[in-house]
Specification:
about 500 residues; alpha/beta; seven-stranded mixed sheet; six-stranded mixed sheet; about 40% helix; globular; binds adenosine-5'-diphosphate; EC 1.2.1.3
């Protein structure tokens, strides 16, 4: 693997916020308990954070309930809400380097990625949602009979939101942005691996003028704090991003409690299809990016690279060379493309999948082992000759492991690409418009990227078919998750 420069970009930051944010105050857990949060570069503890449980969720939900029922948030003018979101975006921009450093420290992602791509995206998304806040309205409906009929688009109420650790700030944004724009109040539970940046930005929200109780943040584990939130009788809606197995639990808890609607953004095993007429060099680079980006920890990772048999050998040689050139190292160093995996559990899981690949008839082209001797780094790994029924072609690995499969016919690759319980995303590489059109329509996935991958924009909806989820985030579609439609019918006196 290539070497990184020795230059450290940003020194680690001071950690100020480790308690829950409930009703505008940073508070300890009712139990007084804390849990450690780690630096995945070294596995060292960087802070002890308040550990929330059902009692803390109760307090947070009560605060959100009061802020919703008594206002001022849902009753404030939409323009004023929009201005608070805009002020918040400005504050994030001002503190962007500190936030990116904290994100890298707690998550392990390259600082340059956090600072130059994710933080600007966060700012952009909040400005996008600020733009929606005062443009949400219902319709006038031409019903039969002497009636004036209108629809009111109202906020749902208290939203419970549970987010994962792979993009702590962006997942916060995808959830909080639309909920606030529509006038809801929130209790958000961060992932136990990455509790720090959400608390920091929540503080910035207060500075921007968000009233107390509108956004409450509880840190803690899934089966305790997360389950308490999903099953709470006073929570009106739950939104979750994470694994498909946990998504099923969330849906069950939501149904068994008060039948709150749930939006779920879950796992994937996305195909990345390289046709015989593709621009191979570009396809190699994007297939590499599609899989290895963010240490392979993306729900939409292009984790099944299907290559047409006529270009297979050339693609394979170049894909392997690219993986060998990938710069792994301290994510605070300039030029580093890949940092550590998030934690010991994920690290062990990815190594187990690699082992299963090695023990199968697939060919290990490069990588296959831990990188270095401390922290959770894994060598960029490429398998060729992968078959559909292998574990590495079926399960979501969530790590830097590229699986390359060979195909011959378009029909065949459609069938194989769709033969998965997931349907989050797909990539298609071809210069033929007919091939592109055929594939985009045939693939059962929430996003199809043609000759590109991982293009995320505030306005583009994102979500899954099949067991990759329910509902869409971002774009106009995300607003539907946070609005109720009320029909108002009034008889007309003089029709
Ligand atoms: P991963 O395996 O990638 O960590 P999870 O789906 O387990 O993904 O976690 C995503 C989020 O779901 C985290 O915030 C986690 O704490 C939460 N979570 C995990 N288990 C549960 C559960 N039983 N109930 C509610 N939330 C949960």
């Amino acid at each position: 693997t290539a070497a990184a420069s020795e230059e450290l970009i940003t020194p680690p930051v001071h950690i100020e916020y480790t308690k829950h944010l409930i009703n505008g105050q940073f508070v300890d857990s009712a139990s007084g308990k804390t849990f450690p949060t780690y630096d995945p570069r070294t596995a060292e503890v960087i802070a002890h954070v308040a550990e929330g449980d059902a009692e803390d969720i109760d307090r947070a939900v009560a605060a959100a309930r009061k802020a919703f029922d008594e206002g001022p948030w849902p009753k404030m003018s939409a323009y004023e809400r929009s201005r608070i979101l805009l002020r918040f975006a400005d504050l994030v921009e001002k503190h962007s380097d500190e936030l990116a450093a904290l994100e890298t420290w707690n998550n392990g992602k390259p600082f340059e990625q956090a600072a130059h791509s994710e933080l600007p995206m966060l700012v952009r998304l909040f400005r996008y949602y600020a733009g929606w806040a005062d443009k949400i309205h219902g319709l006038t409906v031409p019903a039969d009979g002497p009636y004036h009929v209108q629809t009111l688009h109202e906020p749902i109420g208290v939203a419970g939101q549970i987010i994962p650790w792979n993009f702590p700030l962006l997942m916060f944004t995808w959830k909080v942005g639309p909920a606030l724009a529509c006038g809801n109040t929130i209790v958000l539970k961060t992932a136990e691996q990455t509790p720090l940046t959400a608390l920091y930005v929540a503080k910035l929200f207060q500075e921007a003028g968000l009233p107390p109780g509108v956004l409450n943040i509880v840190s803690g584990y899934g089966p305790t704090a997360g389950a308490a939130l999903a099953s709470h009788m006073d929570v009106d809606k739950v939104a979750f991003t994470g694994s498909t197995d946990t998504g099923k639990i969330i849906l069950e808890l939501a149904a068994k409690s008060n039948l709150k609607p749930a939006t779920l953004e879950l796992g994937g095993k996305s195909p990345f299809i390289i046709c015989e007429d593709a621009d191979i060099d570009r396809a190699v680079e994007l297939a590499h990016f599609a899989l290895f980006f963010n240490q392979g920890q993306c729900c939409c990772a292009g984790s099944r690279t299907f290559v047409h048999e006529r270009v297979y050998d050339e693609f394979l040689e170049k894909a392997k060379a690219r993986a060998l050139k990938r710069i792994v190292g301290d994510p605070f160093k300039k030029g580093v493309e890949q940092g550590p995996q998030i934690d010991s559990e994920q690290f062990q899981k990815v190594l187990r999948y690699i082992k299963s690949g090695i023990e199968s008839t697939a060919t290990l082209e490069c990588g296959g082992e831990r990188f270095g001797s401390k922290g959770y780094f894994i060598q960029p790994t490429v398998f060729s000759n992968v078959q559909d029924d292998m574990l590495i072609a079926q399960d979501e690995i969530f790590g830097p492991v590229q699986s390359i499969l060979k195909f011959k016919e378009l029909d065949e690759v459609v069938r194989r690409a769709n033969a998965t319980r997931y349907g989050l995303a797909a990539g298609v590489f071809t210069r033929n418009i007919d091939t592109a059109n055929t594939l985009t329509r045939a693939l059962r996935a929430g996003t199809v990227w043609v000759n590109c991958f991982d293009v995320f924009d505030a306005a583009i909806p994102f979500g899954g078919y099949k067991m990759s989820g329910i509902g869409r985030e971002k774009g106009i579609y995300s607003l539907h998750n946070y609005l109720q439609v009320k029909a108002v019918v009034t008889p007309l006196k003089n029709p």
